[in-house]
Write a structure and sequence with these properties.
This protein is an alpha+beta fold and 107 residues long. Helices cover 15% and strands 23% of the residues. Strands 2-1-3-4-5 form a five-stranded mixed sheet. It starts with 7 loop residues before the first strand and ends in a 9-residue tail after the last strand.
């Protein structure tokens, strides 16, 4: 099934989980607390809460090796530290598919 096609995942903080589950937000580097797997930009990845629940899948905007330097940083901080190409979302809302029903709390 598709699970085999997933190349890795990003672990999110609670605020990012809420934003993604609310269906209104792209995934920003500021909300990512960890990255797993070896993937390149455009690969499908899982978004996982701190408790390990998969909440969404999406197409990564960055290579896995780029993300650790970006963790927890705001877009403006990323622009200053890494350059203008890094101040965008890690996964755009249009490339995100929720795995869990909207409104479900994942604690």
């Amino acid at each position: 099934g598709d699970a085999a096609a997933l190349a890795g995942g990003n672990a999110l903080d609670d605020g990012a989980v809420d934003a993604v589950l609310g269906g209104r937000a792209s995934l920003l580097a500021a909300g990512i607390v960890g990255v797993e797997g070896e993937f390149v930009a455009g690969d499908p990845v899982e978004l996982v809460s701190k408790s390990g629940a998969v909440i969404a899948r999406g197409l990564s905007g960055f290579d896995a090796v780029e993300i650790p330097d970006m963790l927890g940083q705001s877009s403006s901080a990323l622009r200053e530290s890494l350059g203008s190409g890094y101040d965008r979302e890690v996964i755009h809302r249009d490339d995100l598919v929720l795995v869990r029903p909207k409104g479900l709390r994942v604690d």
